[in-house]
Design brief:
8 helices; 2 strands; mainly alpha; two-stranded antiparallel ribbon; 52% helix
Length: 169
């Protein structure tokens, strides 16, 4: 449940860590450069004042720079500690975002993730993890990539056929 907003959380961090907005911007600089995100004084000022909520890419920069969970920074009732380093550890954070979506949002998010899995630059070479969720419980099912033919010969139709088979289970 969301109990505060980004402005409240930023002010809390600034007070606890004795930071000024300029200090936060300095901490954000390496992440902005790495990911090609522009985060300026005006942006941060509007976030701290509560006039504007940061979009996801700027929220990620702030979360990484301040070493806090993006969900916490958004004001949700989740631990402040950042879960990182291991992609599988991000599943609870992803599910937190997902569970706050309405039915249409969940459909759109699921389709976007499915589309990402069709592009080699976003997928791993070993396994694909499929998340199935019912109201509050999540289970992870492992599905291995095709090994019967070279990856370069796999067509989108083959991938769709494999997904159709997996969806019938």
């Amino acid at each position: 449940m969301k109990k505060e907003n980004t402005a409240t959380r930023l002010k809390l961090i600034m007070k606890e860590r004795n930071l000024r907005q300029v200090d936060i911007l300095e901490k954000c600089r390496p992440f902005c450069e790495k990911w090609g995100v522009k985060l300026g004084r005006n942006d941060l000022s509007q976030y701290v004042s509560g006039k504007v909520e940061p979009k996801q890419h700027k929220l990620s920069v702030l979360g990484n720079a301040l070493n806090v969970s993006e969900a916490w920074l958004m004001g949700f009732d989740v631990p402040m500690e950042r879960i990182d380093n291991n992609p599988e550890e991000k599943a609870p954070q992803i599910m937190c975002f997902y569970n706050h979506l309405n039915t249409h949002g969940k459909e759109v998010a699921t389709e976007q993730v499915r589309l990402l899995t069709l592009d080699e630059k976003y997928t791993r070479n070993d396994n694909i993890l499929l998340l199935n969720s019912d109201s509050e419980n999540c289970t992870v099912n492992a599905a291995h990539r095709r090994t019967d033919i070279p990856e370069s010969e796999i067509t989108p139709e083959m991938i769709q056929a494999d997904e159709d088979i997996m969806n019938n289970f």
